[in-house]
Amino acid sequence: TTLPAEPSTPAVERTLVLVKPDGVRRGLSGEVLRRIEAKGYTLVAVELKQATTELLAAHYAEHEGKPFYQPLVDFMLSGPTLAVVAEGQGVIPGFRSLAGATNPTEAAPGTIRGDLGRDWGLKVQQNLVHGSDSTESAAREIGLWFPGL
Ligand code: IDP
């Protein structure tokens, strides 16, 4: 006889969160960290960094050639970014829920982008945060932003 499957517990995993230059400029770094911690995730690494063209080319490789790619890179070069590694069960999809939809106008109230972001009428979504979208992306992105972690 086979036993019924146990309800699955999400694996403990790590994700890369970025407070993008708009979020840092607006003084929202602490608010984003607060929401991550209030949700019950653990901060593993936090560092304010000035991104480089090379780092962004690797980070956003999947978007190369799209119309918003160059404006996105220019925006990400416009000031420091707070890079964060957060850990917890299900933190990869969990942080994406905290962040809300990519377009801050459409992001639900209660989310970081829904509560704190809006459309600034620019060519790129200045949507305050980034969060890895899969275990593969998380491993790749953590390696880019925190080599040696
Ligand atoms: P995500 O950040 O919600 O995962 P992605 O599709 O990975 O969204 O896009 C990366 C970033 O590129 C977004 O956060 C946003 O800043 C920008 N972006 C994505 N799609 C568009 C678009 O259609 N117009 C302008 N900017 C965009």
Automatic annotation (TrEMBL):
The lineage of its organism: Bacteria, Bacillati, Actinomycetota, Actinomycetes, Micrococcales. Pfam families: NDK. It catalyses: a 2'-deoxyribonucleoside 5'-diphosphate + ATP = a 2'-deoxyribonucleoside 5'-triphosphate + ADP; a ribonucleoside 5'-diphosphate + ATP = a ribonucleoside 5'-triphosphate + ADP. Keywords: ATP-binding, Cytoplasm, Kinase, Magnesium, Metal-binding, Nucleotide metabolism, Nucleotide-binding, Phosphoprotein, Transferase. Major role in the synthesis of nucleoside triphosphates other than ATP. The ATP gamma phosphate is transferred to the NDP beta phosphate via a ping-pong mechanism, using a phosphorylated active-site intermediate. The keyword Nucleus does not apply. The active site is at 130 (pros-phosphohistidine intermediate). Its cofactor is Mg(2+). The gene is ndk. This is Nucleoside diphosphate kinase. It is found in: Cytoplasm. It comes from Krasilnikoviella flava. GO terms for molecular function: ATP binding; metal ion binding; nucleoside diphosphate kinase activity. GO terms for cellular component: cytoplasm. Its EC number is 2.7.4.6. ATP binds at residues 20, 68, 96, 102, 113, 127. It comes from the Bacteria. SMART domains: NDK. GO terms for biological process: CTP biosynthetic process; GTP biosynthetic process; UTP biosynthetic process. Homotetramer.
